[in-house]
Amino acid sequence: MGYNFGVGRQAPTFTISAVDGSAIDLKQYRGDWFALLVFVPTQAPDTAEALGQLSAAAGTLWGQRGQLLGICDGNRDDVKTLADTVAGLSFPLLPDDGTVAQAYGALKADGQVQPMAFIIDRAGKIVWSAEGAAALIPATLTGALRRIAR
Predict the structure, then answer these.
(1) pLDDT reported for residue 59
(2) How far is residue 45 CA from its own chain's centroid?
(3) Which of 28, 64, 73, 84 has its CA 20 to 30 A from that of 18?
(4) What is the rounded distance in angstroms from the CA atom of residue 139 to the CA atom of residue 103?
């Protein structure tokens, strides 16, 4: 994929309220889990399908000590509506006003989020990144985490 935004750098931290009301702080995964951040455009026609596929793969990621976090452009209501379309969504969706997406380079000039994924290691550093639709394919994420978590 050739994209390596921020690899080797400290990951920008954030605290966001998920659509279920829980506060998610990136720092809570340090020391124990690999955080897998996926930036997904809320309004894209295939977003719900991609989230469903990622949700089905979450167990495999957990088995490798990876916690998936979906970061979506839009307000809480829009992201909640999206979350409700995915039966059994197994990871938190986080509505972002663009602040986190911008910090990670996932915010396009038109204010929309482009599909991207990042793996943050247990020390809080970006160790892998990818962009485009392939970044949201479960096999891409599980393969990358498998190589990193050895």
Answers:
(1) 86
(2) 18
(3) 64
(4) 26
